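Researcher: Quick one. two chains, 1076 residues in total.
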Amino acid sequence: MNYSAGNFDVAVIGAGHAGIEAGLASARLGCKTVVFTINMDAVGNCPCNPSIGGTAKGHLVREIDALGGEMGKTADKCFLQMRMLNRGKGPAVHSLRAQIDRRKYSDVMKHTLELQENLELHQAEVIAIEKADEGYSVITRMQAEYKAKTVIIATGTYLGGRIFVGEVSYDSGPDGIFPASFLGQSLKDLGLPLRRFKTGTPARVLKSSIDFSELEVQEGDEEIVPFSYDTEDLRENKVVCHISWTNEKTKEIILDNIHRSPLYGGEIQGVGPRYCPSLEDKIVRFKDKPRHQLFIEPCGLNTEEMYLQGMSSSLPEEVQLKFYHSIKGLENAVIMRPAYAIEYDCVDPTEMNATLEFKKIPGLYGAGQFNGSSGYEEAAAQGLIAGINAALKVKGRKPLILDRASSYIGTLIDDLVTKGANEPYRMMTSRSEYRLILRQDNADVRLTPTGREIGLISDERWEKFNKKQQLKAEELKRISKVVISPTKEVNDILVSRETSAITTGVKLIDLLRRPQLDYKALAPVDTTRPQLDKNVFEQVEIEVKYEGYIEKQLKQVEQMKKLERKLLPTDFDYTQLAGLRLEAQEKLNKIKPLNIGQASRVSGVSPADINVLLIWLSQRK
Amino acid sequence: MDNKTIAAISTAQGQGGIGIIRISGDNAISIADKVFQSVNNKKLCELKGYSALFGHVVKDGEIIDEAVALVFKGPKSYTGEDVVEISCHGGMYITKEVLRTVFSAGAVPADAGEFTKRAFLNGKIDLTEAEAVIDIISAKSKTAARTALCAKNGALWKRIENLKNSLVSTAAHLSAWADYPEEDIAEVDSDSLAETFNSALSDFHMLLSTYDAGQIIKEGIDTVIAGKPNTGKSTLMNLLAGKDKSIVTDIPGTTRDIIEETVLVKDVVLKLSDTAGIHETGDKVEKIGVDIAKTRLKNCGLVLAVFDGSKALDEDDLKLINELKDAQVIGIINKADLDLKIDIDYIKNNIENVVKISAKDGKGYTELADLIEKTAGTNGFNPSDGILANERQRNAVERAEKALQDAKGALDMGMTFDAVTVSLEEAIENLLELTGERVSEVVVDNVFHNFCVGK
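Model:
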């Protein structure tokens, strides 16, 4: 017999990266929130790489922060090494990545949840979600019944989790924590179509057993850029990473034992991520590649565990030992935790709206790996949006939908709910068609006003944001006025940068437009330059230098919006439109896109089908 | 869906052998039964699809015309709906009368392109087919029809496809290089990028340059017949047109107005205008004609400059030769059947292509025709190479070329590759639009507005 454990506005199942953001957002928006974790020590766990950010993922963290989320702040607090990836490849693809202290990250996040007003954090395995009078009953293994108006499922890899290491397999969540074994059936009963995905992680090895002497060292950036717009003080990197390579021997060991991989033996049914493959996947799929790179990353300051990025595997422990030992530096490596593959239940995300609410089950939301994505950052981004929308729904406010032109978050969610995911979805810069607008440096400009409107941006932060915008505008004005004279000093700088010398006075803004020049180079001759935040200079410089290209992208956005303004009915039966191909009829009936723009992104709907829709719409007028 | 039954005349309006009234929609057959009486008293609704009855179109009990009614039952019809085609004796008056009768029986006039729109909505044709249909319908020469068919069968698509693939794989490499900074993906270097861009740009250039030849084939070339009075311009026009059109007399200045005629010479369509001669004149009306003629010389695509071979070059001839400096010209020495007194060398020194003919009896026509084909730039033009068929396609390629030039510009300037990518992706988008792999509303609108009523 269940006992009544109270009434809540929002219940969040799972306290990983998605659940944390969902719970915090909902509580901060004034909703009475309960967050469940299967194990209190697994809050904000990083069971895979000890790092936050990376290409496109760094953009996501910036955007989460700009909206008022937590991930960036905590990553800044726990960083061990910061790197801005892709420097030199252009501002659109600059991406921040932090090596973090994983235990500290988990502790800080847990503490943040504990201190959060309106939020209760409970260790409990949720075994059922049932429809109730006003929302849902969430039932735990301990027979507690929590009533909640809305529920967010953020079960990560715990739902029906099963671990595979060679011939050995057993039911388990990540890091040996027990899985959620009952909830899956309850979700099926609610009508959610579940399926199996898989992912994996490499071994952790003992630091003192690695010979670093001949490995390439990877240092952090000298000038550290934090994730959060709130973080001001810049601290030094605390660790270095190392790089090594696999070789012919590694390849041979893996190919000799490939039949012992559950992936190739057929035991694993789940679909794995192409973008984050296991080493055996890489070796089988890219047979001609003689070697693969790996990074040796510390897991924290108070541990000797080292993470081997790029070396995930589901081969037997004995084989793992052999192939790790074939790699330079790892000849005597001691494995502390073996690599494993994990299979788990997730949902078809096309069952959801862009609010992350299930179309057919109002008040029920999904976020993170449960929605078919992979990665901490992707999870956190969805958690934030699901948490915000559940709270907005409870408050009777208009839901938040971010479009593709606003953010990587909007792109991620639109991709998931419109195209679905046939494999764990990973964010990449190439997923966005508007990269030059959606930069990591301007996430605040794009999203902080939205965060403020929702209620997640404090007065202090808002004031700081506005001040920065004002300073930017003033600086733009200044450089449009300042004229640089053709002195020898100036021309020496220009020539040394391989750009043409000037013969008359030239406006500072026009010099900054030259690809070869930047603020730094012009510092000695720009005598009236004010003291400003680095980010201000950065944004001004990018906006000036890339003005034409940014304008081009804005035009593309406008074109996309034209199609988004052509609304489609959500109650139409597309089988009535004989001109549509059969597959398109089925897909459109399933997704029920809100407009032509979204319809054009549904997989299985061809441009010819869209033309049919356009003409049909014009006939209906 | 709005399922009114529509009707329209689906043959070209004008004097023709047969006029066809097409009716399409749920009530097409019952409407046709109201206006059509078969000689054997069978009703159209009793027929199976793809069958016909002979009878009369009747209005208020009176027979308007003899006719054949063809029944197509949906979905096996052009539009996918029930369709009846009534073929009557043609002629504007009778055909229109039959159509009016159909309207009073309950059909409504079809909008421009509505039959094809319905065919499209019912999945009978796709957009590229629809576009090719337009070109086939309006093709004026055999080559044009062949070119239109090629578009549908993919010669153009193949060319575009190759171009697109090369750009897409470059864009993909750039993406991978940016998204996986720590995987050992080959560096993208400016030189190989520039090489790809240059080669694609020259392909774009080729495609755009064949467009004009394609247009000449489809639309015809604006051609002016020029020459002083009484050199035989009108006779030449009649020779080319194959019938008496201009007023041919021996009195100079008979032709005062610009007379237009579309003629087919080999596979080249010429839109001929026969002009008043260029000469000093006191006649006011004639002077207006002369001025118009001079303007035309400047603007047209081809000038057929006619000289009277039986007379020496005079002031007016020299003036004409002088007017033609920048024009595409064929010099025609007419009256070659008489004794030649003209200074041919002088003409040849000033005009590259010269031919001797006798317009009166048609001698030299073959040489002239060859020369016209050569000058129009359509000889050796192979429609199966795939050419851009219309303004929409040309525009898409032009935009793609422009975008790629921007990408090249950014690269040359030393901009970072993310800026280069913006324009590169724009070029790809434009190509996708051309092949119909990407949606643009403009496409749909353009295609369907090109249809004439009835098709």
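The first strand of chain B starts at residue 6 and ends at 9.
Researcher: Thanks, that's what I needed.
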